[in-house]
């Protein structure tokens, strides 16, 4: 794919669509179950910028900011919002089923908690992204599919 993505005879729009079609699905495989920390988010954003720089043949030593690279590519950062949207749709699906997956996803399993700092849960990251307030509000919103879809659409529009 390197020859196609770096070919200057092909428009940037076509190369971007090839990237979205062939490379991003491999990158985002299984992202519905990821918990995205600040560090992971930075790495994903860096990967997205690396792809764009390679497509535009901009050397890593060139002193171009990420904003100028995004302007040249006529795009914005979309990878994190795509991953969050996938996570939110998957979370809504799991919460409506009310099976074992529901318990695992919410982290409401019986037993003792492990020592040390507790791991970040998927629901915590989603409630921050959706700006839903508390996680219980997000869980209740999943019961109403129409309300859940509008919450996801509003979060995607805000682009956070």
Automatic annotation (TrEMBL):
Q: What keywords tag this UniProt record? A: Endonuclease, Hydrolase, Nuclease
Q: Name the domain of life.
A: Eukaryota
Q: Which GO terms describe its molecular function?
A: endonuclease activity
The name of this protein is Endonuclease-reverse transcriptase
Give the lineage. Eukaryota, Metazoa, Spiralia, Lophotrochozoa, Mollusca
